[in-house]
UniProtKB/TrEMBL annotation:
It is found in: Cell membrane. It comes from Phytohabitans maris. Belongs to the binding-protein-dependent transport system permease family. InterPro entries: BP-dependent_transpt_permease, MetI-like, MetI-like_sf, OppC_N. Residues 82-271 form the ABC transmembrane type-1 domain. Keywords: Cell membrane, Membrane, Transmembrane, Transmembrane helix, Transport. The keyword Ubl conjugation does not apply. Its main location: membrane. CDD domains: TM_PBP2. This is ABC transporter permease. It is a multi-pass membrane protein. Pfam families: BPD_transp_1, OppC_N.
Length: 283
């Protein structure tokens, strides 16, 4: 058994350890379920628009999550809000990951650029993120693309710092030095050796950055800086606060809040389980 495990690939060992942890697969199942809800929203509930006859009706058979101050079904709002919230989270995360990986790998590989890039990253991390996000979103105007760009612009420094730390451990490796000695180009070495070396932390960063982006989108939308023409979990909370039903109709805020909590907790559990599974000391 020991010999067999010695010849198994690191990826296979990581997957086996991840699968043995019940929290990891369960959290992945929750995230996949949310993805299915986002994709199949038109098949699950009608788009919430217009007015309804039952105003602020509590959860019941006709309306599982109750209705809001205009009689619109809260369950339909949460279902359709899943689509926008996840799209914004994934898109903002993708932009932040690309920018963070480029900066982090460049800082780790090109030592002369490390000091300058480090100053940029440290300066970005020291900025008051939430007030600046609010300011930029307010000046640019409420829309989904604006939210994606604004959230990504303030999320990449954390990715860059993590990737740089991992890259500093990969660049001095003997196989990287051997590639230099054999005349390998910088681009080839980065693509062939450095990027695979930082891939585990990038995978964790994707999940965590997406959950943070969903939180940021919910916060900005709650403040009225989201797209008024589309539903998101933050928009539901904003409408409840604006209409005054925030304190009188608990169901208008409970269910979108639970959706946000469920996504963030699931993403965090996936990241923790994967990090433990990829570390040989904790397998």
């Amino acid at each position: 058994m020991t010999v067999t495990r010695a010849h198994e690939s690191p990826g296979r060992l990581t997957w086996q350890a991840f699968r043995r942890n019940p929290l990891g697969p369960s959290a992945v199942a929750v995230l996949l379920l949310m993805g299915v809800v986002a994709l199949c929203a038109p098949l699950i509930a009608d788009y919430p628009s217009g007015y309804g006859e039952q105003v602020l009706a509590p959860p019941g058979g006709g309306h599982w999550f109750g209705t809001d101050d205009l009689g619109r079904d809260v369950f339909a709002q949460v279902v359709w809000g899943t689509r926008v919230s996840i799209v914004v989270g994934l898109a903002a995360s993708a932009l932040a990951i690309v920018a963070g990986v480029v900066v982090g790998v460049a800082a780790a590989y090109f030592r002369r650029a490390d000091a300058a890039l480090g100053v940029v990253v440290d300066l970005s991390l020291s900025l008051p993120v939430l007030p600046l996000m609010i300011l930029v979103a307010a000046l640019a105007g409420p829309s989904v693309p604006t939210l994606v760009v604004v959230i990504a612009a303030f999320s990449w420094p954390e990715v860059a710092r993590v990737v740089r730390s991992q890259g500093l451990a990969v660049v001095p490796m003997p196989y990287v030095s051997a590639s230099h000695a054999l005349g390998g180009s910088h681009l080839w070495i980065i693509r062939r050796h450095v990027l695979p070396g930082v891939a585990p932390v990038v995978a964790v960063s994707v999940v965590l950055t997406t959950s943070r982006a969903v939180l940021a989108e919910a916060g900005l939308s709650f403040l009225g800086l989201g797209d008024p023409d589309s539903w998101s979990w933050g928009t539901i909370l904003h409408n409840a606060q604006r209409s005054g039903s925030l304190a009188t109709a608990w169901w208008t805020t409970l269910f979108p809040s639970l959706a946000i909590l469920l996504l963030v907790v699931s993403a965090t559990l996936v990241a923790v389980a994967y990090n433990d599974a990829s570390d040989p000391r904790t397998r």
